[in-house]
Amino acid sequence: MKKLDILLLKSYLGPLILTFCIALFVLDMMFLWTYVDDLIGKGISGFLLAELMFYASAVKVPMAFPIAVLVASIMTFGNFGERFELTSIKSSGISLFRFMLPLIYFTIFMSIAAFYFSNNILPIANLKFTSLLSDIRHQKPALSFQEKIFNRNIDNFAIRIDSKSQDQKSVYGVIIYDHSENKGNNHLILADSAQFGYLNNGAVMTFDLYNGHQYKEETVPAETDKPAKLMQTSYKKWQKHFDLSEFQLNREDASSLSSLHRMLNLKQLSNGIDSVNAEIDDERKLMYDNIGRYNILLNDSANVSIDSTLIADFYTELDTMPLSEKGNIYKVTLVKLRNVKNILVSKQEVFKYKNKDMIQYLVYMHQKFTLSAACIVLFFIGAPLGAIIKKGGFGWPMLSATLFFVVYIVASIMGEKTAEQMVVTPAQGMWFSTILLLPVGVFLTYKAMNDSPLLSGDFYKRLFSFKWLKKKDA
After folding, report:
1. What are the DSSP E strand ranges found in 50-201?
2. How many contiguous H segments (helices) and E segments (strands) does the chain have?
3. Which long-range contacts (CB under 8 A, 24 or more apart) does 177-181 make?
4. How far apart are CA 219 and CA 415, in angstroms?
5. What is the mean pLDDT of the chain?
6. pLDDT in tens, 253-303
7. Which of 48, 230, 237, 299 is the most buried (most CB within 10 A)?
8. Of residues 132, 127, 122, 168, the one with CA closest to residue 147
9. What is the pTM of this model?
């Protein structure tokens, strides 16, 4: 029996790793396609792009791993069924559940590992990925000079070159328009040749200009009749500096992003929930204190205070008051009611924001567990489904897995959105997809253990075969 368990694990690990890598690759390509406009033309090095893809892959693991479990389980048991090995195993007295037992233990172990990844590694990956992608998206295009085309990437400068050397360090026929004074093309710099250089780790670019001229027109007030002065200077060598700090990739401060909910682990989410609860209690106490300052049944002009438990007496005394006194009480009461209404309206928005914040914490807290639960549920769908279909390879398993995975993804998105909109509780929304597919897994497992032909293609071929119909007619 141990040899059979080892055979099953070996048969399962190959498809699991393969489908996981394929799913991760497809998700990475989707990421590149989505953000291709933000990455092109930024002068990103291969190392930086590899780092970004590494973090992106880590972020996509929660989506890639469940589908890998589903496809691998269908392929493994489908291969055993297609080669009639599953039939031989059952005929030897080994039940399907006993045969699945090693993979059940393995799936539980992988679910625990998935929870550890979701709680400890995924928040860090989300933080690094978001920070790096944000900096790349806000980075200006790479500073590159094309021959005989003005480059305006550096603020307040337009630079044109006629040609470049093969080593890309020297340029010839340099024209520089300096617009730093916002007076149009009043400052022109010409040079026969120039060489690039950088200072302060690339924050400053130096241009060593050789054999050139500088022309600068000094403008005069329009009301004067004096002509504009043109200053001309010549030079053999002149080093001009350009500030490139805006082109540098400055990693966004991680502390400014770490408060986002998806970048927190379970303990941090729990602390966040406690903090929001404390803030809600403080706001509620402050609201009660502010409302308590307005005693609606208080007549300021007559200095008469009526206890709320003696409403009847208050109305009796109110009837005996002069008309002018009643008018004062009505006016004072109306002002206090308006103040109370304003307090309630403002606090309603505060509580609404706090509740949304609380829901976000709860959503991501439940999400830590739903990944592990999804792996177990999808295994109990894939393994019996493969045993029933008895088709290996990538065809039927991939088609069947895609259908169930689409249902899982759609249900997960629906549950999360309805939870965020406070239509259902966070627990109901985040566990909706698992609760929806759990009966399907139980049903398929029961049918597979009882050799049900419900989903067997051969059963329906025999059912609707021409020979079967001919025998019936005879």
Report:
1. 157-160, 163-164, 170-178, 187-199
2. 14, 8
3. 180/156
4. 67
5. 78
6. 555 555 577 788 888 888 888 888 888 888 888 777 777 666 554 444 344
7. 299
8. 168
9. 0.65
Place of tokens 């209404």: 341
Joined tokens for residue 44: 């990103």
Task: Name the more confident of 325 and 42.
Answer: 325
C-alpha closest to that of 123 among 20, 251, 254: 254
State the distance between the two ends of the chain, measured CA to CA, in whole angstroms. Answer: 49
Q: Is the dihedral of CA 440, 443, 447, 448 positive or negative?
A: positive
**49-75 pLDDT tens trace:** 888 888 888 888 888 888 899 988 988
Cα–Cα dist 207/193, whole Å: 10
Helix (H, G, I), strand (E, B) or coil at 133: helix
Rounded CA separation 41/301 (Å): 74
Return the amino acid letter for 324: S
Q: Among 62, 58, 64, 63, which residue's Cα sits nearest to residue 126? A: 58
For helices 432-449 and 395-420, give the axis angle rounded to 10 degrees: 150
CA 260/CA 123 separation, integer angstroms? 10
Q: Which amino acid is at 43?
A: G
Asked if residues 107 and 8 have their Cβ atoms less than 8 Å apart, the reply is: no
